[in-house]
Write the C-alpha cells for this entry.
Amino acid sequence: VLALALLVWLRWKAPHPMDYEIQRRENEPPAPRGRLRLSRAFWMYSAFTATTMLGFATFGVISFHIVEANLLPPVLVPVLYAGVMVVDALAALATGWAYDRFGPRVLLALPIVAATVPALAFADTVAAVIAGSLLWGMALGIQESTLRATVADLVDANRRSTAYGIFAAVVGVATAAGGAAAGALYDVSVPLLVAVTIAVQVSAALLLLVFTFHAPILARFRAPSARR
C-alpha cells in the first residue's frame, strides 16, 4: 500500500519523466517511438553482462556448501545472509558514486570480485567461507545497482523500457544458467568450479575492456565537468 501511494505521488509530481532528461534540449521534440534501434554498444554491454553472470554462483549453492561441510549450523546461515545484504547495500552505494565519477570502467571490479568468490566461499574453513560470502554480497550490490544503471546511458529514452526488458531477460537467463552450472560443477570438483569461474570472469573482463574502448558513453566521463 505504501509503495502504491508513493507511485501515485510520483506520478502526480512528475507526470512527464522525459522532461528531466539532461540530453533533451529545450523545445526539442522527442524522437519517434519504435524507430530507434538498440545500439551496438548496448549489445556489447549485454554480452559482458551475460558472461559475468554465467560465472556467478548463487547463494543457494554457497549455503549448501556451508551446511554440507559442517562449517556453520543451519540456523546461522540466515544470519550470515543478513551480513551479506549489508555488504550488498554498501557496495551499491560505493560503486554508484564511483560510476557517476569515472563511468563504466568501475564495473571491472565485478568480474574481479566474482572470480574471487568461489575460491573462498567453497573453501573448508569458516573464515574463508564468511569472507567469500561477503564478497558475493559485494558483487551482488554491483549487479543490482550500477550494472543496470549503465543501460540508461546507452539507450535513448524512447527505447529505454524495451532495453531494460531485454537486459533483465539477459540477466535472468544468464543467472539461472550460471547457478545451474555452479551446482553441477560443485558435484564434480570444487577446484574445477573455481577454475571455470575464473576463466569465465576473465572473458567477461576482456569484453568489458572492449566495450569501454568503443562505447561513446565514455565521452561524458572524460570531460572535466563530468567529475562531480
